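Step 1: inspect the first sequence and its tokens.
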Amino acid sequence: MQKIVKIALVVLGLVSAVLWYLLPSSDMPVAEAADSGAMNAMFIITYLLLGIAVVVSLVFTLKNLFSNPQGLKKTLFVVGGFLLVVVISYVLASGTDVAPEYMEMSDESTVKKIGMGLNVFFILTIIAVLSLIIPGIKNMFSK
């Protein structure tokens, strides 16, 4: 299997090098450069490799997660805590935090979702800072 992957990577590298050589020059207008077949092929290769990386990382993460019951329990606890933070943030968001002249561009539900996102960020930041400070304080006083 490793030999097949190595051969595929070498072939992909050679194809990418050829496509790199065929890319349009920097003095070409953007409209013409966007229609370049070499550039489109490079994007396809990039999306393909990104998709493969995401799928492989998800498969191995889920495989390791389900093979370890303690890890699964801890992960579900963390996901539940995150969902609790999201629900609390949504309840705290008012949806009227924007000046009336800007409300023409969006409705109240959009503003409430943005407020929820900001609240999630602030709550998680506070949790992260406290998780760094509290053990340090405990270590200072335990010695």
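Step 2: inspect the second sequence and its tokens, then contrast the two.
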Amino acid sequence: MTLSITGDDAADALLTENPLALLIGMLLDQQIAMETAFTGPEKIRQRIGSVDAATIAGYDPEAFTEAFRQTPAVHRFPGSMADRVRTLCQTIVDDWGGDAAAIWTQGDPDGKEVLKRLKALPGFGDQKARIFLALLGKRYGFDGAGWRETAGPYGEEGAFRSVADITSPETLAKVREYKRAAKAAAKNG
């Protein structure tokens, strides 16, 4: 299984192989294009040499922010997002022994437990946590009981609502269209 989110082979390989990279991509997925957000972990890896929770948590804050600012920037808000990524990594070190995958593997959790664990992470509100749970279930092999129901509409089979539904450039276009329509409906409603 290889994730196909960004259109960049190296970035998609990192997301597939490194659970922390996938979490960081999800955290970065706000106020920028999905592909840009999910290529962020590969940019971080290239600039600091690693995508590892302990390394990032212990990285010099100013140097880490500078890595975010390098062109092309990791995020349009490099300072605040670098801080958020470092905080996320520190939480993973403190709560999960530095192992991001433990959030969905430790103790054989069901969908509700994983959602609770995700919502406890800094920067992961209810919607982001449900989307990430759907991503784990649809694309990352998580099969904890009740994950689809717990993910809500993001867990629906055949939906094109979020990053969890992207498997190709065509499905990316469908997700974009769904997001455009939802944004327009919210604006007009």
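Step 3: confirm your contrast with the notes below.
The chain has a mean pLDDT of 95. The first helix runs from residue 9 to 17.
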